[in-house]
Each structure stands twice: as structure tokens, then as C-alpha cells.
Amino acid sequence: MPDSLTDEALVALVSKGNQSAFQKLALRHGSRFRALAYRFTSDMAQAEDLVQEAFVKLWTGADKFNPDRAKFTTWFHRVVINKCLDQKRKRALSALPEGYDAEDMSPLADAALENTAAIKRLDTVLRGLSARQYTAVTLSYFEGLTNREAADVMELNLKAYESLLLRSRAAMRKTLMADKNDLLSAFA
């Protein structure tokens, strides 16, 4: 299977049952989409399962892909994001294992804890967004898609996507400013 084949040409071969083309697509894009799923789930095993399900959907439904409507990566972003959002809706809270929060006594533990706390806070703010806002922020800032590509993934026109992204950033800013004000008043 030549490396020069486009993703769309590979999907056409997959629709005819070509396992080699399917394998090439999985190798070409597997890690990228696993990283995307991980951003939604924060669980690598679950991310891998969701991407595997998305690739199964590709294998069984490659004939449904229309290269005139979207690039393969745009279409597959949508498939993976839908799997992640479906999983998020189904997810039930589970108890943490005993001893999960053991104290770290290493000298750099405080600095690492502050950094971890900041990352967790940002993650909490992101997860406080609506699913559409979270998806827009993830596609633009974590996946590095252009606004046009992200709009295509979300099946929005460019202006609607940019407006959604603007509202997402405003919601994040509002939440973070409220946190800042709460902290300042606590030390006043």
C-alpha cells in the first residue's frame, strides 16, 4: 500500500474491505485521535476504547463517508467527538480506591502540587462549559485545527463557530475572574 494515497482514497479502499488501507489509516491517525479522546475523558484506557470503537465504525461504515462533503480527518474528528460525548453522558461517578490520595513528601512536591492544582482548575473550568463550547475550545486550542476546520467538524458555518469560541472564552474568563475575586476577598 503506497504512502502517497490520500486518506480519502484509503477510505474508498476500506469501503471495499481492504484491510491494508484500514491499517494504514489507523497507523496514520490513531495516536492523534487517541489524544483527542483523552482530552475528553482524562482516562487513557477509555480513550483507547473510544477510538477503537470509532475505527470499528470506520471499518463497518466506510461507504457512508462522502469525500465531497468533508475531508476524512474532519469526518473522523466528528465520529470520535460523538463517541466521547456519548460516553460522557453515560459515565457514572465511581468511588476512588482506598489510599488514592497518599501524601507526597518529596522536596518538589509543593511546586508540583501548585502546577497540578492550576491544571486541574483549568480542566474544571473547561468541563464547566457546555459540550459544544468544550468541543470548540478543544478543537482550536488542543487539536490545533483552524477555525474553518473546526467549524467543519462541528458542522457550523465559520461565523457561528467563531461566535461559539468567543462565548466559550468569555465563559471561562468569567469563571476564572470570579475565582480571583473570591481569593482576593478571602485574604482581605
Structure description:
The protein folds into two domains: 90 residues, RNA polymerase sigma factor, region 2, helix turn helix motif (Rna Polymerase Sigma Factor, Chain: A, Orthogonal Bundle), CATH 1.10.1740.10; 71 residues, Arc Repressor Mutant, subunit A (Orthogonal Bundle), CATH 1.10.10. Helix content is 72%, strand content 0%. The chain is globular, with a radius of gyration of 20 Å. The longest helix has 29 residues. The chain has eight helices and no strands. The chain is mainly α and 188 residues long. Helix 1 packs across helix 2, helix 2 runs antiparallel to helix 3 and helix 7 crosses helix 8.
Shape: globular
Mean pLDDT: 85
Structural class: mainly alpha
List the domain count as a whole number.
Answer: 2
- For the CA atoms, what is the radius of gyration? 20 Å
CATH fold type of the largest domain: Rna Polymerase Sigma Factor, Chain: A
Kindly estimate the percentage of residues that lie in beta strands according to DSSP.
under 5%
Helix content, binned percent: over 70%
* Element-by-element helix/strand order: HHHHHHHH
Low-confidence stretches: none
Distance between the termini: 67 Å
The CATH C-level name of the largest domain is Mainly Alpha
Label the CATH architecture of the largest domain: Orthogonal Bundle
Mind telling me the CATH superfamily name of the largest domain?
A: RNA polymerase sigma factor, region 2, helix turn helix motif
Count the E strands.
0
The biggest sheet, with number of strands, parallel, antiparallel or mixed sense and barrel status, is: none
Number of helices: 8
